[in-house]
């Protein structure tokens, strides 16, 4: 069974602060990762992206965003926990 989930960051309800994996500095949220690669990318499948990102369980509850650190010029993916729309109905 699948519950609909919503990324509050993508929907502008929340901002997120990511930490740079290289320098631990505060990085900027650049939006949803799939907006960059696209679901129909001829070069990488979603399975490939998952392996590349190291997020094996991001199918439903996590929205993978693209982060950028201006301190050390590093770009990296990070996961945002999505909110379940059906909360409180069970
Ligand atoms: Zn998102
Ligand atoms: Zn950095």
Describe this structure in words.
The structure is a single chain. This protein has 90 residues and is of the alpha+beta class. It has one domain. Helix content is 14%, strand content 32%. It has helices at residues 33-37, 46-53; strands at residues 5-6, 18-19, 26-32, 62-69, 74-81, 83-84. The strands form two sheets. It has a four-stranded antiparallel sheet with strand order 2-3-4-5. The chain is elongated and about 40 Å long. The protein starts with a strand and ends in a 6-residue tail after the last strand. It binds zinc ion (2 copies). The site of one zinc ion has 8 residues, from loops. One zinc ion (ZN) binds at residues 7, 9-10, 32, 63, 65, 80.
Strand content of the residues, in percent? 25-35%
Q: How many extended strands?
A: 6
The number of helical runs is 2
Helix/strand structural class: alpha+beta
Q: What is the terminal-to-terminal distance?
A: 13 Å
List low-confidence stretches: 54-58
Task: Give the bound compounds.
Answer: zinc ion
Counted up, domains total 1
User: Mind telling me the C-alpha Rg?
Assistant: 14 Å
What sort of overall outline do the alpha carbons produce when their principal axes are compared?
elongated
Query: Strand-and-helix sequence, N→C?
Result: EEEHHEEE
Strand order of the largest sheet: 2-3-4-5
Q: Percent of residues in helical segments?
A: 10-25%
Mean pLDDT value: 77
Largest sheet geometry? 4 strands, antiparallel
Concise overview:
With 90 residues, the chain is α+β, with helices and mostly antiparallel strands. It has one domain. The protein has 2 helices and 6 strands.
């Amino acid at each position: 069974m699948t519950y609909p989930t919503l990324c509050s960051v993508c929907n502008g309800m929340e901002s997120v602060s990511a930490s740079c994996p290289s320098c631990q500095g505060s990085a900027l949220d650049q939006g949803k990762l799939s907006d960059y690669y696209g679901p129909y990318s001829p070069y990488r499948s979603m399975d490939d992206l998952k392996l590349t990102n190291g997020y094996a369980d991001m199918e439903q509850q996590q929205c993978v965003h693209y982060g950028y650190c201006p301190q050390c010029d590093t770009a990296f993916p990070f996961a945002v926990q999505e909110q379940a729309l059906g909360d409180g109905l069970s």
